[in-house]
Write a structure and sequence with these properties.
alpha/beta, Nucleotidyltransferase, domain 5, eight-stranded mixed beta sheet, six-stranded mixed beta sheet, 14 helices, magnesium
Length: 397
């Protein structure tokens, strides 16, 4: 038995969970928000009780110290030495890593080298790691990469049809993201169906404010919708997803946008928000649809259709999937969107059971008994994957 933490550090936030491993019992979880501001918010949940504090949290070091003080204060641990391992979410591992690794100086250098590929996420992840490494020097620290699971893709599914020299010199290729979630869904699907992980042939739909779809063939990532960056693929909350690559060039020429301004438009002002003009949140979109808002209906229809065409295309490419798995904030909690997507895939023999599908956040089959492709809802758990990999490296240390 060992106490293990999972850590997801953003530029101004820190999400954490504390586990008793290998039982995977959650001892505490929480979130530090608005780091760097006077009105930072620290929240921790212990034994079903929620404790919140609003105070100045100038940097990640203060946030980590608050976290550790609260773990001791609420008797989650009696001393720091009880925390044996920490799993850190790292967004981009480039082509270096197809699995999680112990955070060595070499691994840190490789993550730093991938900063140009994830300029917002990798520096935040490294900052979180360095802060925790300083606070918990005796723990085994592990980097868990969003990109690692997708390193199994065949060459034809990750090379872009641009001059090959840009792949050779600049590492421009499809990497894919949400790999930790897609891997969890693969493993959980295998467990639920009593099969080996290498026997899994499914299409996983991680649908939330960020959304990605992955074809998993023989237990490995075969193709995924996000690309060089998390901007690619289906329409998302504020991200455009796939568009004509000439659009940014046309807008830059007409309006004189800088590269950064264009990046902000495509990443922060597009998607459901950009089309609807209402919100990036699907719940707000649904409310606007009920009120007859045409642009909200359009935004929702684009999202559903993009998922349908992606899942349908992947189903053909992989020679047929045994199941479609929904996860993420939308995938787990939007029955109407699941129904619209599966109805659009009826040509493949997929059929939704409306009564079973009327659920939110529950792990279950929502397809009819005669559906040729089974449809599952499996709530994802990226945090437990961080803890599992951290514990595995602790055991091997």
């Amino acid at each position: 038995m060992a106490i293990v933490m999972s850590v997801n550090a953003g530029s101004s936030s820190l999400k954490f969970q504390v586990y008793d491993m290998p039982s995977e019992k959650v001892l505490a979880k929480g979130l530090v928000e608005r780091i760097g501001l006077n009105d930072g918010v620290f929240t921790i949940n212990v034994n079903g009780e929620k404790f919140t504090e609003t105070t100045e949290i100038p940097d990640h070091e203060v946030a980590v110290n608050m976290l550790i003080e609260n773990l001791i204060k609420h008797h989650v641990v009696n001393s720091l030495d009880e925390i044996k391992a920490v799993g850190h979410r790292m967004v981009h591992g480039g082509e270096y890593y197809a699995d999680s690794v112990v955070a060595t100086p070499e691994a840190v250098a490789n993550v730093e080298e991938c900063v140009p590929l994830a300029p917002l996420h990798n520096p935040a992840g490294l900052l979180g790691y360095r802060t925790f490494e300083k606070a918990l020097p005796n723990a085994v620290h592990t980097f868990v990469f969003d990109t690692a699971f997708h390193q199994s893709m065949p060459e034809e599914n990750y090379i872009y049809p641009i001059p090959y020299e840009y792949y050779e010199k600049d590492h421009i290729r499809r990497y894919g993201f949400h790999g930790t979630s897609h891997k969890f869904l693969k493993d959980r699907y295998a467990e639920l169906n009593g099969i080996k992980p290498e026997e899994v042939n499914i299409i996983t739909c991680h649908l939330g404010n960020g959304a990605s779809i992955t074809a998993i063939k023989d237990g490995k990532s075969f193709k995924t919708s996000m690309g060089l960056t998390p901007l690619a693929g289906v329409e998302m909350g504020t991200r455009s997803g796939d568009i004509d690559p000439a659009i940014p060039l046309v807008l830059q020429k007409k309006y004189g946008y800088s590269a950064q301004e264009m990046d902000d438009i495509l990443n922060k002002k597009s998607g459901l928000l950009g089309v609807s003009g209402v919100s990036s949140d699907s719940r707000d979109i649904d409310k606007a649809v009920e009120e007859g808002n045409h642009r909200a209906k359009l935004a929702k229809k684009i999202f559903e259709d993009r998922v349908i065409e992606t899942v349908g295309g992947y189903n053909a490419l992989m020679g047929g999937a045994d199941a479609i798995v929904f996860a993420g904030g939308i995938g787990e909690n939007a029955p109407d969107i699941r129904k619209a997507i599966i109805d659009g895939l009826n040509v493949f023999g997929a059929k939704i059971d409306s009564e079973e599908n009327n659920c939110r956040g529950k792990e279950k089959i929502v397809s009819t008994p005669d559906s040729k492709v089974k449809v599952w809802v499996i709530p994802t758990d990226e945090e437990v994957m961080l803890a599992r990999d951290a514990y595995k490296n602790l055991e091997n240390a």
